[in-house]
Amino acid sequence: MIRVNTEFKVKGNSGAKEVRCVKIFNSYHKSYRGGDPGAKILVLVLSTTSKPRTDNRQVEVGKVYKAIVITKKEIILIDNVYHKVFTLYAVIISLTPVENWS
Question: Which helix (H) or strand (E) covers residue 17, if one does?
Fold first, then answer.
């Protein structure tokens, strides 16, 4: 479940490393205002890659962008028992900053 202020790692080549959810668009469960994987959200960029500005980094820290939530399933072996672990990631889908998002 995704809520506002949930922090994600970012997949993709936008240059962002960590983002925070500030708004959820297509929430199926209006009672708790949460989202599921596949939800479109607005994210605030918290950190970017540590490479110089001359590379392909296309987002700026402190700006708000549109993103979508994805999951990655990993199977981990702990004490001869397999565990399924689902990790949430965000993919920035629009590199144009959103101005009036609230």
Answer: strand 16-24
**What is the spatial distance between Cα 6 and Cα 45, in angstroms, rounded to a whole number?**
12
Residue 74 confidence (pLDDT): 87
In the chain, what are the domains?
A: 7-92 (2.40.150.20)
Using DSSP bridges, classify how beta strands 64-78 and 81-92 pair: parallel, antiparallel or unpaired: antiparallel
The DSSP line for 26-92 is S-S-TTTT-B-TT-EEEEEEEEE-SS-TTSS----TT-EEEEEEEEEEEEEEETTEEEEEEEEEEEE
Tell me the pLDDT tens digit for each residue of 36-67: 788 889 999 999 887 665 555 688 899 999 99
pTM of the model: 0.80
